[in-house]
Amino acid sequence: MAARLVAEGLGLQAEGHWLIRGASLAVEAGAIHAIVGPNGAGKTSLLRCLGLVVPPSEGRVLLGGCDAIDRWPNCLELRRRVSFVQQRPALFRASVFDNVAAGLRFRGCRGEDLRRGVAEALRLTGLADYERRWPGSLSGGEAQKVALARAVATRPEVLLLDEPCASLDPSSSAAIEDGVRLLAARGMSVILVTHSLAQAARLSDTLHVICEGRLVESGPTAEVLSQPRQTVSRQFIDSGRLP
Amino acid sequence: MDTIARGLWRGLLLIASGEPELYRIIWLSLQVSGSAVVLAALAGCPLGAALALSRFPGRRAVVGLLNTCMGLPPVVVGLTLYLLLSRSGPLGALGLLFTPAAMIAAQALLATPIVAALCLAAVAEVSPQVREAALGLGASPLQATLVVVREARFAMMAAVIAGFGRVIAEVGAVMMIGGNIAGYTRVMTTAIALDTAKGDFELAIGLGLVLICLAFALNAGLQALQGTGRR
Fold it and tell me: Residue A86: inside a domain, yes or no?
């Protein structure tokens, strides 16, 4: 199967320092990829490049075979095939409905289609009664779910999640994980950054280990977790295991 | 003390009696300051937002100039406009001196830097994460910029109210440019100044009370906006 999203030799430089370098991966339709690594390894930077939120300093990002970096900054159509959920949900100062509707409105969606799209995303994330709430009245976990709902509402081909369960209780995390599985079953590709090896094991088909800005190991999740080939990934995975 | 109490009582009676001159002065004040602040908002909001969102050589100097202009002395604005609009001045042919239009121009000049500088601060305070969130949801660069400005909307409205508060209480520039002509360019502040000089405290206190009520109303409006913004 042809990969839906391909990254080739991605590098991102900031203030003379490489945040990521030489990162390559390929994600098929319906696949769930997890990226793990220590703090400051470059997980979020990689996700920002994949989401075309920032232009990489080197390398290519291909969506459905089309190179987005070649077209930068005129890659809006490609960018709209991807949705990026940040680790800290930067919700807009507006109702939950308007937050979830934002991505659809950017695409010109109005009226009944808009209402239907928002309602479906809210139902999927268990927020059906939250339409009129404002961000200030939400808990951290609820805000995270709204951020997920507004990304899902746009029905992206690729969903990028930066620690989606970081501020959620176990039952909410389980609900999010169920939601991610459902979306993947519907054909959405998901790339999630997580600190939890257990979550990566539960959710993902493919695992990438990133250290000091480089993807040091990639492969089927069970294989990477049980038999890491690289010393740095073995050290990281061993440190994350419960005794 | 007796004078103050008597003046206060008579001022209240004047307000309650619906004295036409008093309400004409209040209405003109609201018209002049309201128009001025609309002009200031039209110029200041986009200017402040643009300065907050753009980076160009000399930006710091422009921001510094704007901040300096926040404390522009009204009498200097009045003097400058007087020289421009007086019969022998370059804009004398317009015949605007001692008209409400000239007063609006003076107050707009005073309010614009305030509105612009406060809007700049409001937009600059919006977290960069908000723009990134919008881009991550498929916003075009223009849409993402509008999201950022929209995030600052409550603070920007507060900036406009602060601008109105500044000009409605201003006396120096409107006195010089308007001339304090009864029934034509006399506004609350100039009327208070004149009546106080004449020792006629009733109207002065009545207008002073209205000004204080306006200040309370503006403050309440600001607090309500700030409360809405924190939701």
Answer: no
Contacts of residue B69, Cβ cutoff 8 Å, sequence gap at least 6: B113, B117
Which residues fall within 8 angstroms of residue A215, CB to CB, at 6 or more apart? A22, A23, A24, A25, A46, A208, A209
CB contact under 8 Å between A83 and B136, yes or no, is yes
Which of chain B's residues have a Cβ under 8 Å away from the Cβ of A47?
none
Residue by residue, pLDDT tens for chain A (243 residues) are 678 999 999 999 998 999 999 999 999 999 999 999 999 999 999 999 999 999 999 999 999 999 999 989 889 999 999 999 999 889 999 999 999 999 999 999 999 999 999 999 999 888 999 999 999 999 888 898 999 999 999 999 999 999 988 878 888 888 889 989 999 999 999 999 998 999 999 999 999 999 999 999 999 999 999 999 989 889 888 887 644
Chain B residue numbers with beta carbons less than 8 Å from the beta carbon of A73 are: 141
- How many CB atoms within 10 Å of residue A78? 20
One-letter amino acid of A182 = L
**In CATH, which of 3.40.47.10, 1.10.238.10, 1.10.3720.10, 3.90.1280.10 is domain B2-230?**
1.10.3720.10
The helix or strand, by DSSP H or E, that contains position A102, with its residue range, turns out to be helix A96-106
pTM of the predicted model as reported, rounded to 2 decimal places? 0.86
Could you give the 3-state DSSP secondary structure of residue A12? strand
Whole domain around residue A104: which residue ranges?
A: 91-155
